[in-house]
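Revision sheet: structure tokens.
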Amino acid sequence: MSDFGKGFTYCIGLFLKHAEKNSALWFVAADHLFELKIPKNFVLKEECKLWRNKCLDWRLKKCSGEDKNWAIEQAQKFLMEWDRQNNIPVEKGKWE
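Predicted:
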């Protein structure tokens, strides 16, 4: 058992769950990225590493609403791209 989860889609999902709930829980959201396992063949691997590191840097700092929105959008982008890369049809939802 891991304190904050382990994996790729699972950790990003937990990040999104907490990041979107309440801005006061931002540090909780980023904690889920400690054991984020980025797949070696992920086409956005380097971008994902930079995103993870930036989110972890922000965990105990004050960041803007724009920063948080960017981080959430990036997380969604990574999940969608992973599906595309694995030949799973994906498109944004009308009622996101």
